[in-house]
């Protein structure tokens, strides 16, 4: 096995210099760094992560806490974080924390026991106060898809309000006035923020907001989409377009409409949110809002690693914007 001493001997430098090049920290001249890196590549040297952890009392590991890695959205998030760990010579430890605040806190505790100084946390159940308390204790803790004003420098978040406005404006520009919304029943900040954005778009267009045109699904997946649109259809309320909480629910909507002989987009237009791969696998391909979750996770992972190394991020803005993706599930309304 190639050791750090072997690299140092061949490169003609000290082991501490090799260590600084591997960790991408400390002062090393450009020429010297390139020379050492060339030797590392030629010899195929791989640092011993466990040995580094014993010396530094923390591991070169990034922890990622997400609700459910099997869900495409969170799987994409995990991939983005992993890309950043490869660039930083870190490894990634992923923890599922589905269903409760305690599950999320247990996941954080487990990562700390594995000496994770850098953690990206997607919390759906912890309060802002609880998260602030955690941040006080964990310098490298970063929150993704969550804005906590007191901890804004630790938050990487999306402008969900603007995304919903853009989606609604597209429907309005296609002459839709009776627009239904498919959302989720559980208390979720994103769902409420997107609903607020929808209201704003209607208000700006001089259109009324009808609470009876909101359908709720028990889950934020295809089954939840079917459930929510069934409720709306059975109510007898008339609508020509649907703005869905996410792509999975939107595809459930398309399936339910099709089962009832209602065509998309000829009879009812549908817009999703997220731009997951599944959005181009359905027929028709889904018009949606692109959620840059992979890029956000990559950014959040780098930020967590920086903070864990005591590098300040004060004054930085960590807001990402969604953008509109036009495909085939929206038609102009004609009476």
Describe this structure in words.
The chain has 335 residues and is α/β, with parallel strands linked by helices. It folds into three domains: 4-47, Orthogonal Bundle (434 Repressor (Amino-terminal Domain)); 55-158 and 293-321, Rossmann fold (3-Layer(aba) Sandwich), CATH 3.40.50; 160-291, Rossmann fold (3-Layer(aba) Sandwich). 45% of the residues lie in helices and 16% in strands. The chain is built from twelve helices and twelve strands. Strands 2-1-3-4-5-11 form a six-stranded parallel beta sheet. A four-stranded parallel beta sheet has the order 7-6-8-9, with helices on both faces. α5 links the parallel β1 (59-66) and β2. α8 packs across α9 (189-204) and α10 crosses α11 (247-259).
Mean pLDDT across the residues is: 91
* CATH class assignment of the largest domain: Alpha Beta
Number of separate strands:
12
Total of DSSP H or I helical runs spanning 4+ residues: 12
Largest sheet: 6 strands, parallel
Q: Judging from the principal axes of the Cα atoms, what is the shape? A: elongated
Binned, the helix content reads 40-55%
Order of helices and strands: HHHHEHEHEHEEHEHEHEHEEHEE
Could you name the CATH homologous superfamily of the largest domain?
Response regulator
Number of domains: 3
Query: What is the CATH third-level topology name of the largest domain?
Result: Rossmann fold
Q: Numbering strands along the chain, what is their spatial order in the largest sheet?
A: 2-1-3-4-5-11
| Unreliable parts | none
Query: End-to-end distance, in Å?
Result: 74 Å
Structural class: alpha/beta
Give the strand content.
15-25%
So, CATH architecture of the largest domain? 3-Layer(aba) Sandwich
Tell me the radius of gyration: 24 Å
């Amino acid at each position: 096995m190639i050791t750090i001493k072997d690299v140092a001997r061949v490169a003609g430098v000290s082991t501490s210099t090799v260590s600084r090049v591997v960790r991408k920290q400390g002062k090393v001249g450009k020429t010297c760094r390139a020379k050492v890196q060339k030797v590392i590549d030629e010899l195929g040297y791989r640092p011993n992560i466990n040995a580094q952890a014993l010396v530094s009392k923390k591991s070169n590991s990034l922890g990622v806490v997400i609700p459910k890695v099997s869900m495409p959205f969170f799987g994409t998030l995990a991939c983005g974080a992993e890309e950043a760990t490869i660039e930083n010579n870190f490894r990634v430890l992923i923890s599922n924390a589905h269903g409760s605040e305690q599950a999320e806190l247990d996941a954080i505790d487990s990562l700390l026991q594995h000496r994770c100084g850098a953690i990206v946390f997607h919390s759906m159940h912890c309060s802002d106060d609880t998260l602030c308390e955690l941040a006080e204790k964990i310098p490298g803790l970063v929150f993704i898809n969550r804005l906590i004003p007191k901890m804004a420098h630790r938050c990487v978040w999306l402008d969900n309000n603007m995304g919903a406005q853009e989606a609604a404006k597209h429907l309005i520009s296609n002459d839709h006035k009776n627009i239904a919304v498919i959302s989720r029943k559980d208390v979720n900040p994103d769902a409420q923020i997107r609903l607020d954005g929808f209201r704003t778009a209607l208000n700006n267009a001089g259109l009324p907001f009808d609470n009876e045109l909101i359908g709720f699904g028990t889950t934020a997946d295809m089954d939840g989409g079917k459930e929510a649109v069934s409720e709306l259809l059975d109510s007898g309320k008339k609508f020509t377009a649907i703005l869905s909480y996410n792509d999975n629910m939107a595809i459930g909507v398309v399936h339910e409409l099709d089962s009832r002989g209602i065509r998309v987009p000829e009879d009812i237009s549908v817009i999703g949110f997220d731009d997951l791969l599944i959005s181009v696998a359905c027929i028709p391909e889904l018009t949606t809002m692109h959620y840059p979750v992979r890029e956000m996770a990559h950014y959040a992972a780098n930020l967590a690693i920086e903070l864990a190394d005591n590098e300040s991020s004060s004054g930085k803005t960590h807001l990402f914007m969604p953008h509109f993706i036009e495909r085939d599930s929206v038609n102009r309304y004609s009476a």
